[in-house]
UniProtKB/TrEMBL annotation:
Keywords: Iron, Iron-sulfur, Metal-binding, S-adenosyl-L-methionine. This is DNA modification/repair radical SAM protein. NCBIfam families: rSAM_link_UDG. The lineage of its organism: Bacteria, Pseudomonadati, Pseudomonadota, Alphaproteobacteria, Sphingomonadales. Pfam families: Radical_SAM. SUPFAM superfamilies: Radical SAM enzymes (SSF102114), RuvA domain 2-like (SSF47781). Transmembrane segments: none annotated.
Length: 414
């Protein structure tokens, strides 16, 4: 075969990057070029197929530096034994693509990951060089997210954080046993050690910024990680427990979940089919409960079924409420915020509005209905001025009544 064109490389390496979900950018430093200096800008909202409050879709260039890899992780389509087309960008080519796409208003930033080529240090040097060139040679002020390599020298990972808005290190699998079985080239201790070093660098940079105005920033949008769901035997309870430990130990901004997807020429140790995508969605919902609703990991685990997995037909919050019906109903006019956040169907904003409104008036069922998408889901779990659920909360068929109806959509519906 002859030399590959840039378009051919882009097609291969953009497709290879689709399995990585860690690409939000919330929390980064706000920068812009409105003063006539530099190129690009960042916003406090998410990047990469996210939507801003005004409805704009914000996206980034999401590619691999290369899909060549010296590792042989069973679940990875780019493993060294995989029969896929290979391609490789130079750092200069990635820089040129990023700037070209930005000037055409296609993107607002760069998400860059890579397979391991030659060695971990060599690959990490290439990733850092891309970010360095963008920042120092082109004064690029857009968002940069670098996937770092835990096996690389810590100093190289530190350099990545000096240029990138966010860095991330994938833990890959929820259990150490799963990692040993499916990714024998990787070490759980090494991965967590690298995450711990990034955490300490972030803390030190924030402390230095308080004392010195011109102290260098370090990964202002923090660090994140990703776990593959369904490639091994780990249950949702295992995954929730792992995510909680990662949040507590390393101060992560996000833990992302990626449902395992069967790949061509798959290893015999992998499942033959992917887990339901709704399982990935339920894990994100459980993550939200821990981060914004005050649920402890053990409480989320209580919402799981006998096999340790979250139910697929109802969300984790409803599953927990049905298991602990003695906590309900709660009075929307008297209950504290913590109790209202446990009510299925009430989101954080709805609870905030209830707390604000009840200072001035007594809340009725119609008032609550205006704050939620489905009052039918809320009714069994609340008391209002004109409403009491009586025996509704204890009905044996309550789960069936509240579970979303399965509906076959029409392909050519008007």
């Amino acid at each position: 075969m002859g030399p590959q064109t840039m378009i051919e490389k882009l097609g291969i390496l953009a497709d290879a990057a689709k399995y990585d979900a860690s690409c939000a950018s919330s929390g980064t430093t706000k920068r812009n070029s409105s003063g006539g200096k530099g190129i690009g800008s960042t916003e406090g909202m998410g990047i990469c197929h996210a939507y801003a409050p005004d409805g704009r879709c914000i996206s980034l260039l999401k590619i691999l530096l290369t899909n060549h890899c010296v590792f042989d992780c069973h679940y990875c389509i780019n493993r060294k034994s995989s029969n896929v087309r290979r391609a490789r960008f130079t750092p200069q080519e990635v820089v040129d693509l990023t700037l070209s796409f930005y000037r055409r208003n296609y993107i607002e930033g760069l998400f860059l990951s890579s397979g391991i080529v030659k060695s971990s240090n060599h690959t990490m040097e290439q990733l850092v060089e891309v970010a360095r060139m963008l920042r120092e040679e082109h004064d690029f002020r857009g968002y940069i997210h670098l996937k770092t390599i835990p096996e690389a020298d810590p100093e190289l990972v530190h350099q990545a954080g000096l240029y990138a808005d966010r860095v991330s290190i994938n833990v890959e699998l929820p259990t150490d046993a799963g990692l040993v079985r499916l990714a024998p080239d990787k070490s759980a201790r090494q991965i967590e050690g690298a995450m711990g070093k990034v955490k300490s660098d972030i803390v030190e940079a924030k402390d230095a910024k308080k004392r010195f105005q011109h102290a260098p920033r370090f990964a202002p949008a923090g660090q994140s990680t990703q776990m593959i769901v369904g490639a091994d035997a780990a249950s949702d309870a295992d995954i929730v427990g792992k995510a909680s430990r990662l949040y507590d130990s390393f101060g992560l901004r996000r833990v992302y979940y990626s449902a395992f997807s069967p790949i061509p020429d798959a290893s015999a140790v992998l499942p033959l089919k992917r887990p339901p995508l709704i399982r990935e969605h339920r894990l994100y919902q459980s993550d939200w409960l821990m981060r914004f609703y005050g649920y402890k990991p053990a409480e989320v685990m209580q919402a799981t079924e006998a096999d340790g997995n979250l139910p697929l037909d109802i969300d984790p919050k409803l599953a927990w409420a049905l298991k602990f019906r003695e906590r309900f109903p709660v009075d929307v006019n008297r209950a504290p915020k913590e109790a209202l956040l446990r009510v299925p169907g009430l989101g954080v904003r709805a609870v905030q509005r209830i707390l604000a409104s009840r200072r001035h008036r007594t809340m009725r069922l119609d008032d609550v209905a205006k704050l939620t998408v489905s009052i039918a889901k809320v009714r069994p779990f609340i008391v209002a001025a004109d409403w009491r659920p009586v025996l509704l909360t204890d009905r044996a068929d309550l789960r069936a009544l509240l579970a979303p109806r399965q509906e076959q959509l029409e392909l050519f519906a008007a």
